[in-house]
């Protein structure tokens, strides 16, 4: 007992630490923080099982849960990209452990205090953020990207805040309404906090959260209405009036706050002029359906949508939209990744738990201690199911664990001993209602029927009397014949009796040795194993997940120390050169495509800064990253740029071609066409250096066309186009193709914006003036004064434009060329030209 109590105390302490980690750090997309949260949850499961904290039988629904886990695990293990699939596996594993933990014996007050604390902390942080106070967030310990541009509480996103507060609000309301076994004061306090959580939902700005709460309210009112059916008439009428009045007031208040939320979001859309989020998400949904059609039964594997979606980019989506790593619809996400089989299994799992909770609420005793958990589970699952239609709330550890807690409450898990006690109490109540007296009355009626039938039976027996006499005479004749045989039979029976006595004596000796009680002990042992079936499952899951998650936490420890919790998303190596050792160590402990990609980016930066030895290392780690995730556009594009910078143009073209399906549609983010045009320019410069002017001109023309076919920011693309035209004009001047120069310059003025041509840094007019000046000087030396005069005039024209751009700022060299051109024209004019 002492060991058990000690383990339970340790489990509770570790549980508080794990809860603090999940609430503080499980609020953003981060693989290291996900592993850390799940490791703590697994450790709680192990400690509780070892400490004897569980005594719950497996139910039929648990076999359904195990089947669903088996299918999804199979699809995750055989996913094309394991480094992405392991995130789904870790989330699912943590959710399964929390699911079974929620079905163990936990005090109701503990649940209420935990959820209430989450609301109070987030509300305080939210109010401080609204007042403009810079709030320190726990994520700042492990993540440098913790700054928030809006008020999201501890969360990094308004959708996550809205979903979490929506679930917690219905859970706390269920406790306040149905937990009659606790004090009224605590229930009133919890009820007030549930209202505050609901206010946070409406002020979070998440329309999906608002709609999900409304749907949960639509489920709650009929359920509570039906639960009043067993009450006294007057009490039932009063309860239903209060329920109807409260529902109406809540509906009016919710509608008012909802209008504010929707108006604020629509106002932001009108101010920015961008597409509405509904249109964007419809585009994401369309891409998920297109992907599903390629593998409709089993899907294409876990998290394949994160990169396959680029191949099906919808026309309604702008190029600058962020990478749709998730579908923003959990059902379509499952459909695209796990196929129709996965979606059907998920819907069956959710529907089964939902109807189990509904049935239990309508049939079980109104004063049951688990009624509030059933109601909280039913409403919480409803919130998550509705919210999942337009967002991905199950991708954050904290929100995922909230959902699985509610799912576990739906399934229930009352201890076997308590079920027996409940049956006894129910029997006592039935006796008080007089059902046993009813049995006595039923017995009297059966006796009266039996009396009537007995008289009829006597009459039938009198008719059978004559037949009995005949049978007696026949029996006497047979008796004489059987005397001889009976004597022989008695001899045989005496031998059997001796063997029977011996067997009885042997049985008595076995009982004395205790073997006779072995059967009872085996039965009792079997019952105990059945009663602890859930504990066995929980222990197996917790042990496996603790090893898996613990290894990832150990591997990511150097990154967490350097505040590099989020390894995904946009990342620049500038300023992170000192993290090379940390990333290398983490990658050695547990290889991951994101870590090798960032190592390669740091080496790439070092190469760009003049370290020639970094070229080989950058190439090696880019290829390592692509080996683990061959569809990742970032290393594909970066490796192509590396080869371009190194002058390996053929290899660069190969990787640009490989990257095109994944980055072309999102050119705003990746600037694919800009990079490709820079490759064409580099190829043109090489051809020019070799004296291949026609090839150089062709490369520059392709570069100009490629740059303008992209969808990234227009100014950089226009600058590339301008530089290409200037270079082509210079080459034409050097070759003496003066008519071509006029045509190219006329085309440049049509294609390129005037302010791009007039940029001071570009010095376009100076460069062209110098080109014409040198050509004019050469023609003068060749004794071609008329042609020299035309070229000097063009040079003078460009020099004048250059002076106007400088706004009178003196430049000795530039002014000298301008003056020389004017003097040359005066000389030519004096010569009669």
Task: From the structure above, extract its key features.
mainly alpha; 833 residues
Q: What is the number of E strands?
A: 0
What structural category arises from helix and sheet content?
mainly alpha
Largest sheet: none
Total number of helices: 33
Instruction: Describe the global form.
Output: elongated
Q: From the alpha-carbon coordinates, what is the Rg to the nearest angstrom?
A: 41 Å
Distance between the termini: 116 Å
Strand content: under 5%
Indicate the mean pLDDT.
Answer: 80
- Uncertain runs: 267-273, 415-423, 434-442
Helix content: over 70%
How would you characterize this protein structure?
Helix 13 packs across helix 14. Residues 267-273, 415-423 and 434-442 have low confidence and may be disordered. The protein has 33 helices and no strands. The protein starts with a helix and ends with a helix. The protein is elongated and about 160 Å long. It is mainly alpha-helical. It has helices at residues 2-25, 31-50, 60-77, 82-101, 108-130, 158-178, 184-203, 207-227, 233-272, 277-292, 305-308, 330-363, 371-387, 397-411, 416-432, 435-463, 465-513, 518-531, 533-561, 580-589, 593-608, 614-628, 633-645, 649-663, 667-670, 672-689, 693-708, 714-734, 738-751, 754-757, 764-781, 785-806, 812-830.
Give me the secondary-structure topology.
Blueprint: H1 2-25, H2 31-50, H3 60-77, H4 82-101, H5 108-130, H6 158-178, H7 184-203, H8 207-227, H9 233-272, H10 277-292, H11 305-308, H12 330-363, H13 371-387, H14 397-411, H15 416-432, H16 435-463, H17 465-513, H18 518-531, H19 533-561, H20 580-589, H21 593-608, H22 614-628, H23 633-645, H24 649-663, H25 667-670, H26 672-689, H27 693-708, H28 714-734, H29 738-751, H30 754-757, H31 764-781, H32 785-806, H33 812-830
Helix pairs in contact: 1-2, 2-4, 2-19, 3-4, 3-12, 4-14, 4-19, 5-6, 5-7, 6-7, 6-8, 6-13, 6-14, 8-9, 8-13, 10-12, 12-13, 12-14, 13-14, 19-20, 20-21, 21-22, 21-23, 22-23, 23-24, 24-26, 26-27, 26-28, 27-28, 28-29, 28-31, 31-32, 32-33
């Amino acid at each position: 007992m002492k060991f058990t109590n000690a383990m339970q105390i340790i489990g509770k302490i570790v549980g508080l630490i794990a809860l603090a980690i999940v609430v503080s750090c499980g609020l953003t997309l981060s693989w290291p923080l996900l592993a850390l949260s799940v490791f703590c949850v697994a450790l709680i499961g192990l400690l509780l099982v070892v400490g004897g904290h569980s005594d719950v039988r497996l139910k039929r629904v648990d076999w359904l849960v195990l089947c669903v886990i088996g299918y999804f695990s199979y699809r995750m293990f055989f996913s094309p990209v394991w480094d992405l699939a392991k995130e789904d596996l870790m989330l699912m594993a943590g959710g399964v452990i929390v699911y079974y933990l929620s079905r163990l014996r936990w005090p109701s007050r503990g649940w209420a205090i935990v959820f209430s604390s989450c609301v109070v902390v987030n509300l305080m942080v939210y109010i401080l953020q609204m007042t403009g106070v810079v709030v320190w967030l726990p994520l700042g310990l492990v993540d440098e990207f913790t700054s928030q541009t809006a008020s999201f509480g501890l969360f990094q996103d308004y959708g996550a805040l809205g979903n979490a507060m929506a679930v917690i609000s219905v859970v706390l309301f269920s406790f306040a309404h149905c937990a009659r076994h606790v004090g009224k004061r605590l229930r009133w306090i919890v009820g007030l906090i549930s209202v505050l959580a609901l206010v946070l939902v409406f002020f979070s700005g998440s329309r999906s959260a608002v709609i999900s709460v409304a749907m949960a309210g639509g489920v709650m009112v009929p359920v509570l209405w039906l639960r009043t059916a067993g009450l006294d008439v007057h009490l039932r009428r009063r309860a239903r009036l209060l329920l109807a009045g409260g529902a109406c007031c809540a509906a009016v208040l919710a509608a008012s706050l909802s209008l504010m939320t929707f108006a604020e979001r629509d106002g932001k859309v009108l101010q920015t002029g961008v597409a509405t989020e509904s249109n964007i998400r419809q585009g994401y949904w369309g891409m998920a359906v297109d992907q599903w059609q390629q593998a409709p039964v089993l899907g294409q594997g876990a998290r394949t949508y994160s990169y396959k979606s680029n191949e099906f980019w919808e026309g309604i989506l702008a190029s600058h939209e962020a990478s749709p790593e998730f579908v923003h619809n959990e059902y379509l996400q499952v459909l695209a990744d796990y196929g129709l089989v996965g979606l059907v299994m998920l819907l069956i799992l959710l529907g089964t738990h939902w109807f189990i909770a509904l049935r239990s609420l309508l049939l079980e005793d109104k004063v049951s201690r688990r009624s509030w958990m059933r109601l909280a589970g039913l409403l919480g699952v409803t919130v998550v199911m509705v919210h999942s239609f337009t967002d991905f709330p199950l991708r954050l550890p904290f929100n995922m664990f909230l959902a699985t807690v509610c799912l576990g409450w739906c399934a229930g898990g009352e201890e076997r001993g308590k079920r027996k006690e409940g049956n006894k109490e129910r029997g006592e109540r039935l006796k008080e209602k007089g059902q046993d007296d009813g049995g006595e009355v039923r017995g009297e009626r059966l006796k009266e029927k039996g009396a009537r039938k007995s008289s009829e039976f006597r009459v039938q027996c009198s008719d059978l009397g004559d037949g009995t006499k005949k049978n007696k005479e026949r029996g006497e004749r047979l008796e004489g014949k059987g005397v001889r045989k009976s004597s022989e039979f008695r001899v045989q029976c005496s031998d059997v009796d001796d063997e029977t006595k011996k067997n009885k004596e042997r049985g008595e000796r076995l009982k004395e040795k205790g073997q006779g009680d072995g059967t009872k002990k085996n039965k009792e042992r079997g019952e105990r194993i059945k009663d602890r079936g859930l504990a066995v499952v929980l222990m197996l899951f917790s042990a496996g997940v603790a090893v898996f998650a613990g290894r990832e936490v150990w591997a990511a420890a150097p990154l967490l120390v350097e505040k590099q919790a989020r390894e995904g998303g946009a990342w620049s190596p500038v300023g992170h050169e000192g993290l090379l050792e940390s990333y290398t160590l983490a990658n050695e402990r547990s290889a991951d495509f994101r870590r090798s990609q960032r190592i390669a980016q740091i080496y790439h930066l070092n190469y760009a800064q003049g370290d020639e030895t970094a070229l080989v290392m950058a190439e090696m780690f880019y290829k390592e990253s692509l080996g683990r995730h061959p569809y990742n556009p970032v290393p594909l594009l970066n490796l192509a740029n590396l080869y371009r910078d190194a002058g390996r143009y053929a290899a660069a073209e190969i990787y640009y071609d490989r990257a095109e399906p994944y980055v072309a549609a999102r050119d705003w983010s990746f600037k694919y066409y800009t990079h490709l045009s820079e490759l064409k320019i580099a190829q043109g410069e090489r051809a020019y250096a070799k004296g291949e002017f026609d090839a150089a001109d062709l490369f520059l023309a392709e570069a100009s066309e490629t740059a303008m076919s992209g969808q990234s920011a227009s100014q950089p693309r226009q600058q590339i186009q301008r530089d290409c035209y200037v270079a082509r004009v210079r080459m034409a001047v050097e070759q003496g193709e003066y008519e071509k120069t006029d045509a190219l310059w006329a085309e440049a003025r049509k294609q390129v914006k005037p302010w791009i041509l007039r940029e001071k840094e570009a010095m376009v007019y100076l460069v062209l003036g110098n080109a014409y000046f040198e050509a004019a000087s050469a023609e003068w030396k060749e004794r071609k004064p008329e042609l020299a005069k035309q070229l000097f005039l063009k040079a003078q024209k460009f020099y004048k434009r250059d002076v106007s751009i400088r706004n009178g700022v003196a430049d000795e060299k530039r002014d000298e060329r301008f003056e020389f051109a004017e003097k040359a024209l005066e000389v030519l004019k004096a010569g009669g030209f």
